[in-house]
Amino acid sequence: MDRKDFLNSLTGGLAVTCVACMMEACSKDTTTPGSGGSGGNNNPPPGNTVLLTVNLNNQLLSVNDFVAGNGVIVVRTATGNAASSFAAFSSVCPHAGGTVEFRPQSMSFNCPLHNSNFSISGAVTGGPAATGLTKKTVEVSGTTLTVK
Known about the structure:
It is built from 2 helices and 10 strands; from the N terminus they run ααββββββββββ. It is α+β, with helices and mostly antiparallel strands. A hairpin with a 2-residue loop joins strand 9 (138-141) and strand 10 (144-147). The longest helix has 13 residues, at 14-26.
C-alpha cells in the first residue's frame, strides 16, 4: 500500500483534502494592486502605507521638535512646512532592533540598548550599529504631514 492509499484509508481522504487546502491558502496571489485582477489583494503597495499623520497646527511647531509613534520618529529640522523641513526615520535600531530615541540638544538619535548613535541624517556616528537608520518618506499637504 502506498502512502496516498494509506492516508486515504486512515482518514477517509481528509488528509489529502487538507493538504490541498493548505497549499492553496499558502500560494501567492500574483495579482498586483491596480492590475484589475480579481485576486482580492486590496492592500496598498508598501511605499504608500501611511505610518504616521501629524497636524502641523499643533505639533512640530519649532526646529528640534519631534514626534515618535508607530515605529517612526519625525523631527522638524528647519522652518516652513515643506517636506524638506522634516526628517523621518524608522525608530528601530538596525543593530539589534532596540528603539532609538531623538536627542534634541545634539540633534541626534541614540539607541539605549547598545549605545549606537546616529546623526540627524540617520547615518551611524557610533557603533555597534553598522548601518544607518531607515529613512521614511515625508509628505506635506497644507498643515498635514504624513510619513510613509
